[in-house]
Design brief:
8 helices; globular; single chain; Rossmann fold
Amino acid sequence: MKRAQAPEILDAAELVDPSELCENLRDMGRLAHVLGIFDLALRLACEGLPSLRLGLDIGCGDGALMRYAASSLQWIGVDISRCVLRYAGGQVVQASGLHLPFADHSVDVVTCIHVLHHLSDENAEQLFAEMARVARLRWVCLDLQRSKLAWLGAWILVRLTSRNRLTRHDGPLSVCRAYTLDEVRALAKNGGVMLTNYGTFRGFTWWMVGGPR
């Protein structure tokens, strides 16, 4: 299955009706919660690390992960879209994950969920390098895994759970734009990052854990 290059509607969030965008963001957060993505990300990021103080969530969207994990540590959210950040509470910064406005090793842990499939190979490598640069202890990246079965599952899921135009269009397309685990391992290597673990989750998601550069 060849990786798709067609843009998602969310990639031009400034052109989307605000109420439609808000509903789409809620859909994505709800599905990530129900499917166990948030639990997985937090376990991978925080397990075995005592006295954590500060986490950074790249591509935070409306801040769903930060709200879910508010009791674990203080969070800063980063997203490139000013339109999306209008719906995020807490401490947020408008910035690109490719050029994070943070010093080396300035946050304890970094999470990045469902961002990589929006990026080219070159930009994905740069994102890995930036996560590893700012993380003091650990970084975690998760995304969809491209396959025909995952696409079918996404197509069915969004039609059963949402009437939102963005959710129904972008959900299956996200799978088509996603990387496989082997592809993303190669990107991480090219980005010069140190992987400590990696794997797949329920067949539709890959995950990676790494340390600072």
